[in-house]
Amino acid sequence: MTVNPTHTALWPAPHASGAVAATVHVPGSKSVTNRALVLAALAHEPGWLRRPLRSRDTLLMAAALRAMGVGIEETVSSSSAAGQDGSGEAWRVIPSGLRGPATVDVGNAGTVMRFLPPVAALADGPIRFDGDPRSYERPLHGVIDALRALGARIDDSSLGSPGALPLTVHGGGALEGGRVEIDASSSSQFVSALLLSGPRFNQGVEVRHVGSALPSMPHIRMTVAMLRAVGAQVDTPEAGGEPNVWRVTPGALLGRDLTVEPDLSNAQPFLAAALITGGRVTVPDWPARTTQPGDALRRIFTEMGGSCELTEQGLTFTGSGSVHGIDVDLSEVGELTPGIAAVAALADSPSTLRGVAHLRLHETDRLAALTKEINELGGDVTETADGLHIRPRPLHGGVFHTYDDHRMATAGAIIGLAVPGVQIENVETTAKTLPDFPELWAGMLGN
Ligand SMILES: O=C(O)C1=C[C@@H](OP(=O)(O)O)[C@@H](O)[C@H](O)C1
Ligand SMILES: C=C(OP(=O)(O)O)C(=O)O
């Protein structure tokens, strides 16, 4: 958890003078966009991706696939889905024989660093993976060890530790696949990564998770649902299978026409704004059914004070004027933790956030970063073995450091709405998944 020395500009977080009342169009889901890109690249026919998220993580994914030979064309849709905000724009994905040599910049994108080594194992030629310094520290061994067990040749001897970036996958044009055991307790993305490419392995794949509890189960369900939507056969624990075992049958994937849902986790700061100002925010196109973990915000923020209604206009969240603390297990929805911690710091009673020890290995050590930054504004947060205790205190202004973590920046903005004088260091880091965050935030406030 180091302060980024290259970003010293401070963004004065806007303070809300009253209840917010706004409709906020939230861009597409990172998790859906990057899965859809991988599946479309592995398909046997072209496909469409409408309203894809265009952010650092998804542009890195698209660039990496292009480097391996996949065609990804920008198009402007003529369909009625095309909105004035450009939301109808689409990517047409044209699969082709995957090939190296190629270099993949993973940035600090968990989805890119974990989903693409299995794709690279299917390519013909060497694919070199590198990324931001933090990417060297984030767990990857589950994917790398599994790929080796399934027949891949990977050279991780250059710089870093075994099973970590930077490394080279020497793709052989095909991968045998089969049965593999992994410990995915540090990231659900290990499971998702192997399942996404599984239909293209000669024997498909059977993934057995053998460690302690798996985090982020909705994200694994998202992977399974998206695989099935492109024609893959997947057996899951939920469907009466063995616990912690997923099986993907080998087979061709269809090219589909998919419209990406808004990113419900990125809707969080806007809903939080309604909650803490006693206002009202509507997010259009909120899906009635979804595998996105952000859908849990309806329940969590309602428990923290407020109410929500899903109508044809979207999801409207209305604050009650009070914000309550919460005792909650966030293991399924870890990426919501920074925003919930920010709201909890402004509540009328203490909170306990549990089940998120693995956040220490996210974009930054999120538990340490939230504790330090909220406490430096006068808060009283302590780390537990698997989460945070947050006792609300009157907060004051100051600099909120973000450690290159988009969700730290949006957490700081939430606090800034209620606390005058908060300045966010490197708000540009929101570009990882929400490049327009400062503009959307200002627009919500009517600025
Ligand atoms: O598969 C995905 O799209 C994600 C899975 C989760 O990762 P972890 O299981 O590593 O927490 C989540 O936190 C991340 O933001 C996105
Ligand atoms: C953990 C996150 O991202 P990543 O996909 O890089 O793991 C996140 O977006 O909160």
UniProtKB/TrEMBL annotation:
UniProt subcellular location: Cytoplasm
Ligand binding (phosphoenolpyruvate): 30, 110, 138, 189, 366, 407, 432
Active site: 335
Keyword hit for Amino-acid biosynthesis: yes
Residues binding 3-phosphoshikimate, per UniProt: 30-31, 35, 187-189, 216, 335, 362
Coiled-coil zones: none
InterPro entries assigned to the protein according to its UniProt record, in alphabetical order: Enolpyruvate_Tfrase_dom (IPR001986), Enolpyruvate_Tfrase_sf (IPR036968), EPSP_synthase (IPR006264), EPSP_synthase_CS (IPR023193), RNA3'P_cycl/enolpyr_Trfase_a/b (IPR013792)
Domain annotation Enolpyruvate transferase: ranges: 17-439
Pathway: Metabolic intermediate biosynthesis; chorismate biosynthesis; chorismate from D-erythrose 4-phosphate and phosphoenolpyruvate: step 6/7
EC number assigned by the record: 2.5.1.19
UniProt catalytic activity: 3-phosphoshikimate + phosphoenolpyruvate = 5-O-(1-carboxyvinyl)-3-phosphoshikimate + phosphate
UniProtKB keywords: Amino-acid biosynthesis, Aromatic amino acid biosynthesis, Cytoplasm, Transferase
Recorded family membership: Belongs to the EPSP synthase family.
Subunit details: Monomer.
Protein role: Catalyzes the transfer of the enolpyruvyl moiety of phosphoenolpyruvate (PEP) to the 5-hydroxyl of shikimate-3-phosphate (S3P) to produce enolpyruvyl shikimate-3-phosphate and inorganic phosphate.
Designated name of the protein: 3-phosphoshikimate 1-carboxyvinyltransferase
